[in-house]
Amino acid sequence: MTMINILDDSTINKIAAGEVVEGPYSIVKELIENSIDAEATSITVEIKEGGKKYIRVTDNGSGIEEKEVEKAFLRHATSKISKIKDLYKVLSLGFRGEALASITSVAQVEMITKTRDQQYGISIEVNGGKVISKKPIGCPNGTTIIVKNLFFNTPARLKFMKSTQGETAKITEIITRLALSKPNVAFKYINNNNIMFTTLGDGNLSSTIYSILQDDWVKNMIEVNKKANNLTMEGFIGQPTLYRGNRSYEIIYVNGRYVKSKLVSQAIELAYKENLPINKYPVCVLNIRIDPSLIDVNVHPMKTEVKIKDEADIFKCISTSLKEALIEEITIPMLKVKE
Ligand code: ADP
Ligand code: MG
């Protein structure tokens, strides 16, 4: 006779962790997104050995109340939505309530958190999904989460991690994207005791681009501020001379969320079509705002995919507006030369 087993929570969480925690970079992403959702204005990320051994994210956000602390580590536990209807107006980066549960099921986690209203904070240690200590502690407002020894209890996954260099590169990429999406948050990124970058958090996107990318990007970018039908686009797009051999610097946000969208990428590339060499891709840091009821971000647990209603309309809007922005920029200097 075949037995049908009902899996226990620890096994369920480890399976789910496969989708949420692809590697150290996904932990960094989830933790920073939680800090952003907690309205932090300052976020520090420190990693060691490509995040495989150590990741620490500290924020000055809302913190978690003492009585809620343990709940945060449960699966499907979230303060961001309460019913399915909420999904269609979700503007927070998280809503699935599974990141902390997944991370703690495959690593050793320590969290220190304090709300403004509490006299003291709480320090809690969770090891492979089990709470091993919880005690009051003196600490600043906000939350610090330390994740050590990723995949210590899932040897098969441990083997699939990349070299320290490879994992570091992926972390740098995700922090860059998140920091560029929030110019009003001061980010600090430390790798093996070296400061990789800091941003001012002054709300200025061009100074944020300058702090992170540090070359002459800003000088070669065109500011975009367009409103078309039911979407707005803000940010910077590169001059056609500032191209890359792949899409990794087509940095796109939809309603503040970093996404990889083939539709948006193709619309951007169409705008550049006549101005770029073949097989080259434009660079941009572009924030698109759409009514949240017109998009679905609940496509995959990693939440980097987005489904857009009225795709054809949105595609046209993006490519036409960007083309306009490019033409304005390219033709104005030419006119000046003629004068
Ligand atoms: P989600 O972000 O989808 O809600 P998570 O598992 O990432 O799920 O987090 C669970 C809950 O823990 C959040 O909804 C939030 O209430 C709380 N939380 C997590 N990280 C932080 C943080 N840095 N600051 C304040 N609250 C946090
Ligand atoms: Mg989250």
UniProtKB/TrEMBL annotation:
GO cellular component, as recorded: mismatch repair complex
Keyword Cytoplasm: no
Protein task: This protein is involved in the repair of mismatches in DNA. It is required for dam-dependent methyl-directed DNA mismatch repair. May act as a 'molecular matchmaker', a protein that promotes the formation of a stable complex between two or more DNA-binding proteins in an ATP-dependent manner without itself being part of a final effector complex.
Residue stretches in coiled coil: none
Section of the entire sequence shown: 1 to 339 of 612
Gene transcribed to yield this protein: mutL
UniProt key word DNA repair: yes
Homology family: Belongs to the DNA mismatch repair MutL/HexB family.
Organism name: Alkaliphilus pronyensis
A GO term for molecular function: endonuclease activity
UniProt-listed GO biological process terms: mismatch repair
Name this polypeptide is given: DNA mismatch repair protein MutL
Domain of life: Bacteria
Record-annotated DNA mismatch repair protein S5 domain positions: 209-327
Keyword set, alphabetical order: DNA damage, DNA repair, Endonuclease, Hydrolase, Nuclease
